[in-house]
Amino acid sequence: MNANHNNQVILADDFRGYLFKDQMAEAFHSYRSMENIYASAIREIATKLEILNDEFKYNMDRNPIHSIKTRVKSPQSIMDKLLKKECELSIKSARVNLTDIAGIRVICSYIDDIYTIADLLTAQDDIGLIRITDYIKNPKPNGYRSLHLIVTVPVFLSTHTEIVTTEIQIRTIAMDFWATLEHELAYKLTTEKSIYTRQELRDCADAINETDMRMQKLYNQTILLDKP
């Protein structure tokens, strides 16, 4: 192999390397741009929820929202979900096919607070309700309970407005406690332990739901009935 050929091979390898770097840089920039849009949508909705919570504190001397947690899916999580759905791996595909890139979890004190917050939020003019799934009235087979909303919210940028889809999960403190621990335990289930453990988890979910119902009843009896 002569020197000229060697140089051509090296130059070709360098070109592929630069091309790969350019592609990576473009993909990274595209994700960061998308991430910013979804993070902005989260801030918009979180602010709305905080305003509602503050109004309740001012008018009713209580906060129906205990806490708010937010997240934007990582590139790996987005890719895994697109592969699972057998969709094209691209930013455009992610925005079209995934409704939970932006996620907000709202933790409430009581079951009735869940529906109150959901109704007040979706009644706002710039919030579009795409879908509501009630896992409280219709729990998943494993016992999971939560109210899921898929909504859209406008994000006003310097040159245009983006309508962004966001998933909101609203649940009680007790429901969140169970869901967090169940998520951790579910990954560690073996075949031998699976049936027994899943039944135990379901039983715990039912017991927690019964506690939630009792706490709601106590609130209604001790707080609501005392109001003039």
Please tell me about this protein's structure.
It is built from 6 helices and 5 strands; from the N terminus they run αβααβαβββαα. β4 (147-156) and β5 form a beta hairpin. The radius of gyration is 24 Å and the shape is flat. The protein has 228 residues and is an alpha+beta fold. α5 packs antiparallel against α6. The protein has one domain (3-226): Beta Polymerase, domain 2 (2-Layer Sandwich). The termini are far apart. Helix content is 58%, strand content 19%. It has a 5-stranded mixed sheet with strand order 1-2-5-4-3.
Provide tags for this entry.
228 residues, alpha+beta, five-stranded mixed β-sheet, flat, Beta Polymerase, domain 2, 6 helices, 58% helix
CATH homologous superfamily descriptor: Beta Polymerase, domain 2
What does the radius of gyration come to? 24 Å
Q: Give the tally of structural domains.
A: 1
Helix proportion: 55-70%
- Overall 3D geometry? flat
Largest sheet: 5 strands, mixed
CATH architectural category = 2-Layer Sandwich
Detail the poorly predicted runs.
5-21
The beta-strand count equals 5
Beta-strand percentage range: 15-25%
Which class of secondary structure composition applies to the elements? alpha+beta
Q: State the CATH class.
A: Alpha Beta
Instruction: List the total number of helices.
Output: 6
Give the termini distance in whole angstroms. Answer: 96 Å
Order of helices and strands: HEHHEHEEEHH
Q: Residue-averaged pLDDT, rounded?
A: 86
What's the CATH topology label?
Beta Polymerase, domain 2
Strand order, biggest sheet?
1-2-5-4-3
